Amino acid sequence: MSALDAAMAVLLVVLLMAASVLAGALVVRRGRPHRDSRLLDPQGYLTPETLAAMERNLTGRLLGRYVLEGVLSTGGFGAIYRAIDLHRETRVCLKMPRLDRIQQEVQGGSSFGTFIMEAKLRAKLQGDHHIQIYDRGFLLVLLPGFQVKVPFYSMELFPGRNLGEIIREQGKLPLEWVHQIFLGVLQALKEAHLEGVIHHDLKPANILVELAPARRASDRGRPDRVLRVKLIDFGLAGKPGSGGTEPVRGTLGYIAPELFNGATPGPETDVFSLGVIFLEAMTGGRCQEAGDGRDGSSDWVSWVRGGRELAVPAAVPAPERDLVKRMVARDPRCRPTTNELLLRIRDRLHRSPGQ
Ligand SMILES: Nc1ncnc2c1ncn2[C@@H]1O[C@H](COP(=O)(O)OP(=O)(O)OP(=O)(O)O)[C@@H](O)[C@H]1O
Ligand SMILES: [Mg+2]
Fold first, then answer.
1. What is the pLDDT of residues 304-327, one digit of tens each?
2. Dihedral over Cα of 127, 129, 134, 137: its sign
3. Those residues with Cβ within 8 angstroms of residue 234's Cβ, 6 or more apart along the chain or in another chain
């Protein structure tokens, strides 16, 4: 071998060593041995699809004192897990930010602040129609390449389902159920309003209902009465805002129309949303102005711009029709207070049991 060949060979070895050190540095920084473009985005972070798949496969993972059993639901910001609490030796429901939101926080693009506020507020609301919060704080979550302290809270695992699922399955609900459900929600809402907190996101998916199976054999196990009602998801809740400059909070199809014109949110804007839910429970479907289904959002915006009152079908019994018309009135001053609603619904429930 000539001196030149030997020099070339040494150079090659040095280059190979440098390349492997660089590759090693990448692996260490990224924390994963192979780079796969379907799993990672150009910056080397996990893609939303990868994170969603990881979320679905968290079964059996231990986080603090919780063994995750599976995802119950994922929403705008949070993910809800069924979990075993090793400390309490019981099954619980655990809520924490979704994995992609956690990664966003690491990237500096998101904030856990709202979630921490939600946990704090829910721990404060302790009435019968609020879910009992057991524990809250931070859990250490390890994702490839980073670890992060993530806020969470654990709560009672409610055996029922949300009102949206119940309406989709049962259609129009018996009037007595509607009264019982709304009595519970109103009590929970009144408690929140007394704390100076507006819910901002009242909709069927944020109301949990436990139904009792029928006692009569002829009903073939179909549920026959409402056992318990809980108001959940204070993720958008807050003090009455200043309106105007704040973005409109809530879910299209339930947001009071004046909020689109910069009005200040208050108890009456929650009463409007509750009116829409009341209407849906009594008719068994989405109200006409919200469209039917996922693409209903643009219908709501055109209804807001159109200036008409919300249509209340004639099939709704007269006393409920009058009440719901006032709840969904465009003019917030015409809407009943939660106190008046509680009195009226209690009265209807006592007058017409078993309707
Ligand atoms: N304590 C609980 N027990 C049983 N199921 C629950 C409980 N809390 C929530 N769920 C289920 O999870 C769904 C979503 O819960 P929640 O509304 O709190 O969060 P989200 O809407 O997914 O999140 P976000 O705060 O981001 O909007 C509910 O509609 C309900 O079906
Ligand atoms: Mg929700």
1. 888 889 989 888 999 999 999 999
2. negative
3. 118, 121, 122, 125, 192, 197, 199
3-156 belongs to which CATH class?
Answer: alpha beta
DSSP one-letter string for 272-295: HHHHHHHHHHHHTS--GGG-SSGG
Please state the domain extents for the chain: 3-156, 161-351
d(CA 275, CA 279): 6
How many angstroms does the Cα of residue 206 sit away from the middle of ligand 2?
5
What is the rounded distance in angstroms from the CA atom of residue 347 to the CA atom of residue 327?
17
C-alpha 138/C-alpha 154 separation (Å) is: 11
φ/ψ (deg, to 5) at 351: -75, -35
CATH 1.10.510.10 fits domain 161-351: yes
What's the Cα-to-Cα distance from 301 to each of 127, 165, 260, 272, rounded to whole Å? 35, 25, 9, 16
d(CA 209, CA 160) in angstroms, rounded, equals 5
User: How far does residue 306's CA lie from ligand 2's centre (Å)?
Assistant: 28
Instruction: Identify the three-state secondary structure at position 329.
Output: coil
Residues with CB under 6 A from ligand 1: 72-78, 80, 93, 95, 131, 155-158, 162, 205-206, 232-233, 235
Q: What is the mean pLDDT of residues 203-232?
A: 84
132 CA from centroid of ligand 2 (Å)? 16
Evaluate whether 328 touches 173 at the Cβ level (below 8 Å): no
- Classified as helix, coil or strand, 250 is coil
pLDDT tens sequence across 5-58: 655 555 444 444 444 333 333 222 334 444 555 677 777 778 888 888 887 778
Name the pTM for this structure: 0.84
- Do 269 and 240 meet the contact criterion of CB atoms below 8 Å apart? no
CB-based contact 290:253 (threshold 8 Å): yes
- Name the residue with the closest Cα to ligand 1, atom 21: 75
